[in-house]
Each structure stands twice: as C-alpha cells, then as structure tokens.
Amino acid sequence: MQLTMLGVGSSAGTPVVGCQCATCLSDNPKNKRLRCSAAINTDNGEVILVDTGPDLRAQALRAGLNRADAVLYTHTHADHLHGIDDLRAFCQVQKKQIPLYGKPDAMQHIQAKFGYAIREAGDFWDLPVLSLNPITDPFEVLGIKITPIPVRHGHSDILGYRIGNLAYLTDVSDIPETSLALLHGLEVLMLDCLRYQPHYTHINVEQSIAYAGLINAQNSYFIHMTHDLEYEKLSAELPDDMYVAYDGLKLNF
C-alpha cells in the first residue's frame, strides 16, 4: 500500500492568512501546508481517505485523486471534517455510496450536522451518498484490517489508526499505555507535532520526538504542523530516523 499526505498543516494551514513570518513567506514548497489529511492507495487501486478537511477538493486535484472508497475519521473538528461535501464528486464518478468509519460519537456528530448526506444511492448524485459505520474494535475495510488507536486530544478521546505496519496519529496530547502497546513493530509512524511551545491539545516538538523514540518505528514523520515550524530548520534538529512530513509525501508500507 501507499500513503500520500494530502496535507500536513494545522487548522490554519500554512501560509497563515495575514502572516509575514519567514515560514509563511518561504518559497520552499515543503512549507506550503494544507489542512492535515491522507490518502491510502491499496494494491487493488482503491483509496481510503483519513479525514476530509476543508481543503479536500484542492488536495484531490493536486494529487490526481479520482476516487475515494472509504473514509476513516480521527475526530470531527472542522479542520478534519468540513470537506465532507467534496465527497460528492467521488460519489458522482463512482456511482456508489462511500462508507465512513469512526467512533460512535463522531458518527453521531456527522449525522447531526451532515444528515442530508447520509442516504442510500438513488437516481441522482447531487449530494454526497454516505453511510455511517461506528467502530470500537479492529475492523476490515476493503479486506484490510484496521486497528483503531485511542488517543487523547485535550479533553477529547479520539482515534488514530494502525494499518498494517503504518500508524497515523494526529491531534494527540497523550497516548495511553494501552495504545502504545498496539504500536509495536511499525515501519512508519505519522505523528502529531504542532509547534515548539507546549499546547494543551497537541504534543509539541519535544514531546513528539520523545513519543517517536518510545514507539521506535523504523521511520517517524511529523504532521499537523503550524507555521512556527520551518521545514529545513526542524529537519536539521531531528534524529536520523525522524523526518518532517510535507504535502504530497508518498510512503510505501
């Protein structure tokens, strides 16, 4: 399988509107960050999305993404959910319903806010055609085993996911011991890394390095970054097996 990072930015993206900092003014394309989400391409050519942020249309066009067969939701904050209407385009192309997976409370939130899109396929494709699938235990999507990884995001309990030997953990403030036990033997770890300063709902650079060292994946990549983190500067500060992710990064696993 192959992971493509559609975006590695935080809720404001980078550049930040109105900001004149060095990262926002940088001409390095690896400092241009859309909101955090990913696409996983299977060996059969199917695509699993992780979250649908508000930049989904632009991300799909940039990545040449022309299908979406399922969506895994980490949580329902706007920067991870509010591109859900852009799933309509994939429904129109594929002429089929797209299943959504996530915590029961996340599915309830989507039903309450985007209930018009939760429907069966019919003769018209003017709206998204989506189904809700609450999950609490390991499950299968397109024949692929996926293990939910419970993590803390401030006062919220949300999910990361393990797919084969890759784990995707965004918006993390704490990883419980029981979840760390699910992360042994990883080839690739995608891990939240908001900024240098501490934050009550996200781990910072120091904490991300510590967690990556504890989990000890073969390679760790930091995601969900604010404009406080400049690509080249942060890259030079990281251990040899840790990297700064960027929009468009592709990893086989």
Structural class: alpha/beta
**Quaternary form:** single chain
C-alpha Rg (nearest Å): 17 Å
Spatial separation of the terminal alpha carbons = 6 Å
Encode the helix/strand succession as letters: EHEEHEHHEHEEEEEHEHEHEE
CATH architecture: 4-Layer Sandwich
CATH superfamily: Ribonuclease Z/Hydroxyacylglutathione hydrolase-like
Q: How many beta-strand elements? A: 14
Detail the poorly predicted runs.
none
List the helices and strands and how they pair.
Blueprint: E1 2-7, H1 22-25, E2 37-41, E3 47-50, H2 56-63, E4 70-72, H3 78-81, H4 87-94, E5 98-102, H5 104-114, E6 130-134, E7 139-141, E8 144-153, E9 156-163, E10 166-169, H6 177-180, E11 188-192, H7 205-215, E12 219-223, H8 231-237, E13 242-244, E14 250-252
Parallel strand pairs: 3-4, 4-5, 5-6, 10-11, 11-12, 12-13
Antiparallel strand pairs: 1-2, 1-14, 2-3, 7-8, 8-9, 9-10
Question: What does this protein structure show overall?
Answer:
This protein is of the alpha/beta class and 253 residues long. It is built from eight helices and 14 strands. Strands 6-5-4-3-2-1-14 form a seven-stranded mixed β-sheet. The protein has a seven-stranded mixed β-sheet with strand order 7-8-9-10-11-12-13.
